[in-house]
Each structure stands twice: as structure tokens, then as C-alpha cells.
């Protein structure tokens, strides 16, 4: 497959889709080609705001992304929507099933919507989404939204690849964390209480105060205190406020140098994660290791050698 890098960098959707297909491919030669492309476009990446969005099913993520995305397009932005959903056995995942909820957005030229990749080899689904994000940036997308449904470690992985991480909540003040894992709250740069409309308007305001108090106890970060907002994705209320908050974060973070520090840290962590996964793979695929492993397991089980000596023996084979 040949990919016209100029076309890609001019925002040609076909070129972008082809490059993403290489990133997501299971074939080694495709992946190698993808890495070459990524390296070549690297100088053109990084010029976006990366926003992560999570929340329980039904909270309104798809509706929010549709409304928010269309709002951003009105502001002159190009918007890419990606997903990390390790539960989807086939490429498809959360977004594809929800395309109906993002119907208008998916028809817009200024928007690019890509469903979650299916299970990836090294680095998993998140690795592919990170790479896809870079390709979208090279293609000129200003805002990258990464959605996750919160299966397994996916929220942590998404929080680790975005600049701003947001949790959508329901108007339900009494309901403690609404099924959101507690650790996720500590990662959140903002909680947004969606469905603040109709009869839920008061409850949403109450919920907002409730979380403001809870967050106050939870985290005191360097320059940014997590915010709580309310909005209605359906009625398109307060969407500008959400964007205003993210813009303010961006300005503050750049001023504080925290923006690029965070990205550097994320890149380093990403590299380390890959390094360890590659090492593990190399170990598992080493013929000598393969041969001696069962025997050493047995010796450890029988108390003939220590786990340390057995592990060391195998590592020394590399
Ligand atoms: N009243 C109200 N309903 C909403 C709002 N946003 C989404 N919904 C509804 O909530 C349901 C779930 O929304 P969806 O976007 O599919 O949630 P997701 O599972 O998080 O992607 C749908 O019936 C939406 O129409 C909102 O702001 N207000
Ligand atoms: Mg959805």
C-alpha cells in the first residue's frame, strides 16, 4: 500500500484512512510501514488539543460528542473522534454502534470519526489509538476527542494520552460515584454533569455542588483545580462553557509549561511501556527460554531451586 504523505498532510481523508489502516494492521510489514510514516509526519504532530471523555453507558457521551463536535466546527476547528474500547472483539466498538447518535457530525467534512481498533499486538488498543491520534494531527485536526466506555484499564490509558480528561456524570447527587471507579476521579480535570435540562435542572445543580465538595477533598494539583460543570448535550446548553474551560486550561497549562511537560511525560511512559512489552515478547519467543522454562517451573514447584535463581537463569539466556 502506498500513501501520499503530502496528501495526508493536506488533510486528504482517503490518505488518512489508509495510513490508519496500516497502523491498525496485524501484518508486521504494514506496521513497519506505519512506523515509517509516523516518523516522517512527527514534526507535523502535536498541534492539537487532546481531550479524553469517559462516563458510564447512557450518560450521553455520544450525544455530547456530536453536539460538542458541531460546536467546535462552528468555531472553525477540525475535529477527530477516536475510541478506546478493549471490549469490542471486532473493529466497531462504541463509536460505530453509536454513529446514529453522531449522524450530523459524521457527515461533516471537518470531522473524522474512527471506531475503536480491535485488539492490538504490542501496546494493545491504546497504542493504535495513540498512533492514530498522531496521524490525525498530521492531517490538520485541531481537536482530538478520545472516547472510552471504561472497560478494564481503558480510562487510565486514555487519561495517559490526552491533555484534558473529562468524566461525564448524570444528575444524581445522592449516587456517590455512579459506578465510576474511584481512581478515575483523581485523573479527572473536569466532571461534567450532563442532562442538565427539563426536570433534572435542579438536581444537576445539586449534583454539581456535591461533586465540587468531593473534589475539593480529593485533589489539589499544581496549577489546575478540577472543575465541575453542568450541560445539556441534547438541548445544546453550556457547551460553550465546557469549551471555554478547556481553552482556559490549555492557556494556563502552556503558560505554566505544564502542557508540554505532561506530553513529554506521557511520551516517556508510553515508550517505557512499549519497551517492557517488547522485552517480554522477546523473552517469550526466545527458543532457549521456551525450552528451559517448563523444566525450571517444575524445579521451582518441587523446591529444587529458588524462583530467583530460575528467573535469573532465563534472563541470562537473552
Ligand atoms: N435529557 C437529556 N438526555 C440526553 C442528553 N444527552 C444524551 N441524552 C440521552 O441519553 C441517552 C444515552 O445517550 P448516549 O449519547 O447514547 O450515551 P452514551 O452511552 O454515553 O454514549 C440517549 O437516549 C440520549 O438521547 C441530555 O443532555 N439531556
Ligand atoms: Mg455512546
UniProtKB/TrEMBL annotation:
TM segment ranges: none
Any one of the GO CC terms: cytoplasm
Entry keywords, A to Z: Kinase, Transferase
Top-level taxon: Bacteria
InterPro entries documented for this protein: GTPase_ArgK, P-loop_NTPase
Protein biosynthesis among keywords: no
Cited Gene3D superfamilies: 1.10.287.130, 1.20.5.170, P-loop containing nucleotide triphosphate hydrolases
GO molecular function: GTP binding; GTPase activity; kinase activity
Family: Belongs to the SIMIBI class G3E GTPase family. ArgK/MeaB subfamily.
PANTHER family the record matches: METHYLMALONIC ACIDURIA TYPE A PROTEIN, MITOCHONDRIAL (PTHR23408:SF3), METHYLMALONYL-COA MUTASE (PTHR23408)
Protein name: ATPase/protein kinase
Amino acid at each position: 500500500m502506498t500513501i501520499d504523505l503530502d496528501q495526508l498532510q493536506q488533510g486528504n481523508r482517503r490518505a488518512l484512512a489508509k495510513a490508519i489502516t496500516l497502523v491498525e494492521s496485524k501484518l508486521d510489514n504494514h506496521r513497519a510501514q506505519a512506523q515509517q510514516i509516523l516518523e516522517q509526519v512527527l514534526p507535523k504532530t502535536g498541534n492539537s488539543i487532546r481531550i479524553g471523555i469517559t462516563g458510564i453507558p447512557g450518560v450521553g457521551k455520544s450525544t455530547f460528542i456530536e453536539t460538542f463536535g458541531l460546536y467546535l466546527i462552528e468555531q472553525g476547528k477540525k475535529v477527530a473522534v477516536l475510541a478506546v474500547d478493549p471490549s469490542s472483539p471486532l473493529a466497531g466498538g462504541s463509536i460505530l454502534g453509536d454513529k446514529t447518535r453522531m449522524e450530523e457530525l459524521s457527515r461533516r467534512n471537518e470531522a473524522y470519526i474512527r471506531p475503536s481498533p480491535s485488539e492490538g499486538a504490542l501496546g494493545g488498543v491504546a497504542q493504535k489509538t495513540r498512533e492514530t491520534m498522531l496521524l490525525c494531527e498530521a492531517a490538520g485536526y485541531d481537536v482530538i476527542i478520545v472516547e472510552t466506555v471504561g472497560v478494564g484499564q481503558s480510562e487510565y490509558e486514555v487519561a495517559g494520552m490526552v491533555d484534558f480528561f473529562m468524566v461525564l456524570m448524570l444528575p444524581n447527587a445522592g449516587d456517590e460515584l455512579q459506578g465510576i471507579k474511584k481512581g478515575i476521579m483523581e485523573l479527572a480535570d473536569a466532571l461534567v454533569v450532563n442532562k442538565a435540562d427539563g426536570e433534572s435542572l435542579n438536581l444537576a445543580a445539586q449534583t454539581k455542588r456535591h461533586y465540587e465538595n468531593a473534589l475539593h477533598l480529593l485533589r489539589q494539583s499544581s496549577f489546575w483545580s478540577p472543575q465541575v460543570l453542568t450541560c445539556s448535550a441534547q438541548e445544546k446548553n453550556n457547551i460553550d462553557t465546557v469549551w471555554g474551560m478547556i481553552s482556559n486550561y490549555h492557556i494556563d497549562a502552556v503558560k505554566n509549561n505544564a502542557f508540554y511537560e505532561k506530553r513529554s511525560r506521557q511520551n516517556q511512559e508510553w515508550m517505557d511501556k512499549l519497551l517492557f512489552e517488547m522485552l517480554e515478547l522477546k523473552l517469550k519467543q526466545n527458543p532457549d527460554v521456551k525450552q528451559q522454562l517448563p523444566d525450571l517451573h517444575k524445579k521451582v514447584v518441587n523446591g529444587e531451586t529458588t524462583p530467583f535463581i530460575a528467573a535469573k537463569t532465563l534472563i541470562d539466556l537473552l
